[in-house]
Amino acid sequence: MSLRSLFVDFNSYFASVEQHEDPSLRGRPVGVAPVAAETTSLIAASYEAKAFGVGTGTMVREARRRCPGIQIRVARPERYVVWHHRLMEAIDHAIPVGRVGSIDEVACELVGRQRRREVAEEIAQQVKNEVALAAPGGAIRCSIGIAPNDFLAKTASDMKKPDGLTVIELADLPHALHGLELRDLCGIGPSMEARLHEAGITTVAQLTAADKHRLRHAWGGIEGERMWGLLRGAWLPTAPTERGSIGHSHVLGPELRTPVGARAVLKKLLVKAAMRMRREEMLSGAMAVRIRFIGHDQRWERDLAFDPTDDSRELLRLLNGVLDSGNRRHPLPGPANATPLSVSVTLMRLVPRTQSSGSLFAPTQDTRRVDALVDRINNKFGYNKLYFGSMQLALEHDAAPMRIPFNRVPDTDSENEAGHDPLWLQSLNRFKAIAEGEHRRRERGGKGN
């Protein structure tokens, strides 16, 4: 009875929700984009679209070229969050929901007799039946992996899609993994793959054969030993972590790829982060600002430390200082005349309000009351009903809408934007990395022609 984890992965989740809510899309190729623009990249594609070589990261206009009949839908994070909760409830009818990894993934722990293979497979089938009851019509499906730990169960869930069921037992290891590529394993991205190659590990077979010391060296720390254990089926629950930062990022739409547009979006992102921070009764003592430009691999970045605060106006003043610290002849720092592609701002060095005396120059009580009043109005009547004038351009173009923060399910009552949800953000962040790479690739290609 080595099986301890049942992992549920919803297939092409965003596109599947669109197909479920609009039956005319079922059986047809569908792509989901963050904004209505031909130059943006898809964040999801249905399996009908994938058959034409369209997938996450494909630019909209390229998707239309490869698949002339594709239907493009603008992402609706609020609906994806609603369905996330419905589907978690459906799973809970079959087995208690354990750790929610993202908006379309969840790991459940098998206990007692559930660890028997035949019982675990019965539970997996019950999960599929409950999903079918919650979303009749067959548009929303899931693949399920069963294994000795969450890492291997997630890996198993990816082996057979869509609507698959794969079981990996201890006796199947490590050979069951040898047909995979390194990047198929959770936690191995492009940079980690490059480090493994430098360590002489180019296949999963070589990875599973490596000893603890070699993996520790490749990972540069204890995570290498952790990977060694996970590959062998060790049950290593994820240790709880404390929040160390609050931030937001956004890939700019074509209409906002100007210095003025980028600054407006940065200010909106900062105010969103400050509002979240106040809701969690935290203060920030540092800020990180990042800007990427089309055709430039190197991003512009600045970090700033300051006395702990949660005041939006003080944080905006600090942001303006960072953006104006470069050449004043250019309204935006970074390469001269470069076109901004994406921006991000992160508040760091978070401390509970009760554990910090703040600064001698901290805002007055009246200032805090204004922040509290603005937050209450926006919570009650909708996000950005009251806002700073410097955010106007970003609001006109609906930039940086609701997102999903990491490691939590969105609180739609208090946030008023599904985009604040960590789970949606998690998925969007994966898209942003792909989209930025695609833009840079196309820019370099254009210069070479």
Give structural notes.
- The chain has 449 residues and is of the alpha+beta class.
- It folds into three domains: 1-170, Alpha-Beta Plaits, CATH 3.30.70; 174-232; 246-400, 2-Layer Sandwich (Dna Ligase, domain 1).
- It has 16 helices and 13 strands.
- The protein has helices at 13-21, 47-50, 60-66, 77-92, 117-134, 150-157, 190-198, 204-209, 212-219, 222-231, 259-279, 312-323, 365-381, 392-396, 412-415, 422-448, and strands at residues 5-10, 30-33, 44-45, 71-74, 99-102, 105-109, 142-147, 165-167, 245-251, 282-293, 300-309, 340-348, 351-352.
- The strands form three sheets. A five-stranded mixed sheet has the order 5-6-1-7-8. Strands 9, 10, 11, 12 and 13 form a five-stranded antiparallel sheet that branches. It has a three-stranded mixed sheet with strand order 3-2-4.
- Helix 6 (150-157) links the parallel strand 7 (142-147) and strand 8 (165-167).
- Helix 11 runs antiparallel to helix 12.
- The model is unreliable at 357-365, 393-400, 402-409 and 411-420 (pLDDT under 50).
